[in-house]
Amino acid sequence: MPRYFLDFTDGEKTIKDPDGLELSGPAAARAEAVTFGRELVSREEMDWTGWSVVIHDEGGHQLDVVPLLGPARTG
């Protein structure tokens, strides 16, 4: 099964996914990015405004970018 990496970036800073996930294909990787992104934003541990999940395959090719959407943390 192919491995996909979900990196987080705001265009300046990047949080790399060192291990990746074995998923059935690009559609499954996008679904995982959307689900994980929503969960992360809902925790409200930081303001994710302007951040995105960048999906790469094992060869390092960028496959998709999923913006993190949701309420910004206040206070």
Measured by DSSP, the beta-strand proportion falls in 25-35%
Question: How many strand units?
Answer: 5
H/E order of the elements? EEEHEE
Shape: globular
Largest sheet: 5 strands, antiparallel
Low-confidence stretches: none
Rg over CA atoms: 12 Å
Tally of alpha and pi helices = 1
Report, as a whole number of angstroms, the end-to-end distance: 43 Å
Average of per-residue pLDDT values: 89
- Which percent bin holds the helix content? 10-25%
* Class derived from helix and strand content: alpha+beta
Explained architecture:
- This protein has 75 residues and is α+β, with helices and mostly antiparallel strands.
- Helices cover 23% and strands 31% of the residues.
- The chain has one helix and five strands; from the N terminus they run E-E-E-H-E-E.
- The chain has one helix spanning 26-42, and strands at 3-9, 14-15, 21-22, 52-57, 62-67.
- Strands 1, 2, 3, 4 and 5 form a five-stranded antiparallel beta sheet that branches.
TL;DR?
This protein is of the alpha+beta class.
Topology:
Blueprint: E1 3-9, E2 14-15, E3 21-22, H1 26-42, E4 52-57, E5 62-67
Antiparallel strand pairs: 1-2, 1-3, 1-4, 4-5
Keywords:
globular; alpha+beta; 75 residues; 5-stranded antiparallel sheet; 31% strand; single chain; 1 helix
